[in-house]
Design a protein that fits this description.
Blueprint: E1 32-37, E2 43-47, H1 49-61, H2 68-79, E3 82-88, E4 95-98, E5 104-109, E6 114-116, E7 119-124, E8 127-132, E9 144-152, E10 155-161, E11 163-170, E12 176-177, E13 183-189, E14 192-197, H3 199-214, H4 217-222, E15 226-230, H5 234-246, E16 250-254, H6 257-266, E17 273-276
Length: 285
């Protein structure tokens, strides 16, 4: 096997990150393996060195790029699946959360966990981050715990887990509805029954805090405004709609751009705003 090298101007540092999948529109390029959000909020692309090397070899060989039909087939296949982070937390089945909802993965030393009233917190990036568990909180007996960080409106909340298992792609199809708090239901991932964590429920406190901090101005501005939400993922449709409704919008939800265009022509009153995921942008031209 041959060897190759990439020239860079400077190496800054090494850092553990959560790599999120690239949008379907960029996947055919085979130049990026994903993207991530840094601690300062900036978004960076992750280079796929194997893909770059493959493209260099393809260009030398004079091979043609994939045609439009192949690209569209790939997009159709990918939009039916969601990337999940699998982990263990407490007893019972493995747990999962969509990768797109995760801000970062962190390791926290137990000696740094403090109590604010009855709530466990940790000093995190110049602020206090509340720590939660699935079930009753008990101070961990190990020196270091793994924490999944979720963010909303520049505020963070950390979910303490026992261990990270893997990152996988699977169709979002809940087979069994749950009655437990913090659980949407169960589905089969990699041949095992897996509980899907209700991230919206965990983030509800952060949403309430944001509403209180910003006062009623945000809700007053949104009150009576009609919003057409276009989202091809059932999970993100169910996650986003309650937040928008809580902010005061009259929300109508559709699955794709074609439905949005059709519905927009039929609505008695046109929406003030159309919000759509990156994967649906092409439907609007």
């Amino acid at each position: 096997a041959g060897r190759g090298a990439g020239l860079v101007d400077r190496v800054h540092d090494t850092e553990e990150i959560v790599v999120k999948p690239v949008t379907n529109r960029l996947k055919p390029l085979q130049l990026y393996s994903g993207n991530t959000i840094l601690g300062d909020g900036s978004v960076i692309m992750i280079l796929d060195l194997n893909g770059i090397a493959k493209n260099m070899g393809t260009l030398k060989a004079g091979a043609k790029q994939p045609n439009g039909a192949a690209i569209n087939a790939q997009e159709t296949h990918d939009t039916n699946q969601t990337s999940f982070l699998l982990f263990r937390a407490g007893e019972g089945a493995p747990k999962a959360v969509p990768l797109e909802l995760i801000a970062r993965l962190e390791e926290v030393e137990v000696q740094d966990i403090e109590m604010a009233g009855h709530e466990p917190v940790v000093q995190y990036r110049g602020d206090l981050m509340r720590l939660i568990t699935l079930g009753t909180f008990r101070m961990p007996t190990v020196p270091v715990v793994q924490v999944i960080v979720f963010s909303y409106d520049q505020k963070n909340i950390g979910l303490i887990v026992d261990s990270i298992i893997d990152i996988v792609r699977a169709p979002y199809a809940i087979k069994f509805s749950a009655h437990e708090k913090d659980c949407l239901g169960s589905m089969v991932i990699q041949g095992k029954t897996t509980d899907i964590v209700d991230v919206a429920s965990m983030l509800s406190d952060l949403v309430d805090q944001a509403m209180q901090m910003h006062g009623s101005k945000g809700r007053v501005a949104a009150e009576g405004k009609r919003l057409l939400l276009v989202e091809d993922s059932p999970f993100f449709r169910n996650l986003t709609e309650p937040f928008l409704a809580a902010a005061g919008y009259e929300v109508t939800v559709v699955e794709n751009g074609q439905e949005a265009l059709t519905l927009r022509c039929c609505l008695p009153r046109a929406p003030h705003t159309i919000g759509c995921s990156a994967g649906c942008l092409y439907c609007f031209g």
